C-alpha cells in the first residue's frame, strides 16, 4: 500500500491498530543499551507508550555515530564537532518521523544541493535533479551521464544487470549473499568510467570494501537509495550541529515522558531475567532489554554474558559472528581561505586511494559559516569510508589533504589553522555470506531485542534509517507482548520493478 507521508510516497509496512490500546497496561520496564539513533528511537517510542525506560550510554553524550561534542580552537572560539557529516535522505521515512516529534516541519534540515561525483580523471557527474520515480531516474541517469555513451552501453550485460531491478528480500539474498559486490559489478561489464563514477562511489559509501561485501546487501542498497526510491537521490542536512538540532531536543522529550538517561555508563553483561550489569559493579533489572549498541560492542557484551549463551544459544552464536568492517576516517580542517564558489556542499570522490567525500561545513552549518565569515576561511571535512588499516588519524588526514589538492587546486596553498581528526572502527561489516547468521530484531532470548544499522531487516533500509527502523520493530515487539498497538513503520517499495510476482 502506498501512502503519502508528509509529501512523500511511502509504503506502509506496519499499520497502526486503533482497535488496540495505545499504551501498555500495568507497569512495564525496559532498559535500552546504547544511545545512538537506534537506542534513542527505541527509548522514546517505548516511553510514549507508557513503558518505564532507562537508557544507558557509554559515552558522555548521546548520538553514537551521529554525536557532536564541544572543542575550543586555538583562536579561542568554541565549536561543536560532529562524528561526521550525514546526509538525511528523503526516503528515511521512519527516522524522519522520529525527528518530526521534535520539529514537525523538519525545519532544521536544509537541502544539501547538487551532489557531484568528482575525480581527477573525468569531468564531474551528478545524481541530483534526476526524475524522482524509478525507472525514469535510471533511464535519465544513463541518458545524461557522459560515463554511459550508447556505444558503451552495448557492452553491458543486460542479463547480469537484471538483479538490480528485481530486488526481492528472499530471492536476492538467496542468490547473491554468497557473491561479492566486486564480482557482481565485474559481471555487469560496465565501461570503466561508468563503473568508477556511478557504481564504485556508491558501493564505497556503504563503508565496506567491494571484495568483502555481500552483493545481496549492495543490491538492497541500490534498491533502497536509487532504483526504488521515489524521493530522488537529493538529501538534506541539519543547519545546526547534531547536539543542538537532534539530541538535546530528543532527550528533553524522552525525559518529559519520565524516561531516564544515564550517560558515561558502560554495560558489561546482560543476563536473562533481565539483569544488566554495568562497569563499576552496579546491576539493573527490567522486563525487557533493547540492545542497541554498535556491532562490535554488542558482540563483546554477548561474549561476556555466559547466561545469555545458555538461555539463547542461537542468538549467542549469531552475535559472535557479527563483525565490524574497515576503519573510516573523519578529518575536519579550519583553513585560512574559502574554496572556489562553485564547489558543492557535499562532493563524492571517485578513484582516490583514501579520500571518499568532501563537505564544506561552512556552507551548510550556521556556526561554521559564522566562523568562516569572521575569519575569512573555510571549514572542510574529509571522509574516508573504507580506509587502509593501521594508519593513524594524522596520517590519514595528510593523505586525504594531499588527494584534495589534486582535485581542488585552490586548497594547495591554504593554511590549516586547526584540525580535528578521528579514525573509527565501529561500522558494521556486511561480508559475503553474512546474512545467514545475521541476527534480527526479535531473538530466541525472550525479552531481549536488537536494534541498530547492523541488524537483519525484513524490508530495505540502510544506515541511519536502518538504525531507526530496527528500533521501531523492537518497540513494536514489546508493545505486542503487552497488548498495545504498534507504531507505524514505512519503507520504500519492498520489491524491485521486475521482481517476479509471488504466489500468495
Ligand atoms: C563518518 C560517517 C558518515 C556517515 N554518513 C552517513 C550518512 O550520510 N547517511 C546515513 O544514513 N548514515 C551515515 N552514517 C552511518 C550512521 O551514522 C549510522 O548508521 C547510525 O548512526 C547508526 O546508529 P546506531 O544507533 O545503530 O549505532 P551507533 O550510533 O553506533 O550507536 C551505538 C551506541 O551504543 C553505545 N555503546 C556501545 N557500547 C556500549 C556499552 N557497552 N554500554 C552502553 N552503551 C554502549 C555507543 O557509545 C553508541 O552511542 C555515517 C557514519 C559515519 C561514521
From TrEMBL:
Domain of life, source organism: Bacteria
Q: What is the recorded name of this protein? A: Dehydrogenase
Task: Show the PANTHER family listed in the entry.
Answer: AMINE OXIDASE, PROTOPORPHYRINOGEN OXIDASE
InterPro entries in the record: Amino_oxidase (IPR002937), FAD/NAD-bd_sf (IPR036188), Zeta_carotene_desat/Oxidored (IPR050464)
From what organism does this protein derive? Actinoplanes nipponensis
Q: Where is the Amine oxidase domain?
A: 37-479
**Classification of source organism:** Bacteria, Bacillati, Actinomycetota, Actinomycetes, Micromonosporales
UniProt GO MF annotations = oxidoreductase activity
